[in-house]
Amino acid sequence: xxxxxxxxxxxxxxxxxxxxxxxxxxxxxxxxxxxxxxxxxxxxxxxxxxxxxxxxxxxxxxxxxxxxxxxxxxxxxxxxxxxxxxxxxxxxxxxxxxxxxxxxxxxxxxxxxxxxxxxxxxxxxxxxxxxxxxxxxxxxxxxxxxxxxxxxxxxxxxxxxxxxxxxxxxxxxxxxxxxxxxxxxxxxxxxxxxxxxxxxxxxxxxxxxxxxxxxxxxxxxxxxxxxxxxxxxxxxxxxxxxxxxxxxxxxxxxxxxxxxxxxxxx
Length: 266
What we know:
Layout: E1 17-20, H1 26-37, E2 41-44, H2 49-60, E3 68-69, H3 77-91, E4 96-99, H4 114-142, E5 145-149, H5 162-182, E6 188-194, H6 201-204, H7 209-222, H8 231-242, E7 253-256
Parallel strand pairs: 1-2, 1-4, 2-3, 4-5, 5-6, 6-7
């Protein structure tokens, strides 16, 4: 038996080349930091270049190799192709793709426009599909894996967010179908489905400070564990799924929601 303090580190990513989208804020930025602490080599994407540079600066405290920045809009196919090409050219391989970039549109069926639908699907689904397709040849070589950031809104239905819920349900199906398609090639595909996590996404979707404060208070009631979650809690789960500790896990859509997915409809 190993002595205390000598135990194997269950979750680690030493030397793994990990491409993380949405890394300029929220879950993507938090995931980049956790990956850096676990020894990963990072390629980081985000739209806000200043925030992306700040994420990279924080990661550098833990990284032996400076993160590669591949900024740009996920709806731009040229950006997506360049993202994968630059990562492989820089590091020589790709081991993990984390699809964390996404948007929240908080509108019900009566208010939602086709422009809202197109925007949600283009950012939350279409970009994931193409980026996955671009990454797969490289992931096959390394027997790597993909972790998609979905939502409890893909597992459960909520009022006032119709196209967001639709897009995240599509992400869940993409995850499962891709997992089956790639299993014979030893490429794993999984997703995390967060509940309410404390980030800026709800403010960006239109909530003012009073509404957001009330929303977080309501989360204490709607989440059985009695609180919203943190970015760190989601990022640690993503790291687990991306690591060899999850080597026999593929096709899962894992809730990180304080039990929200298990509750009865409101």
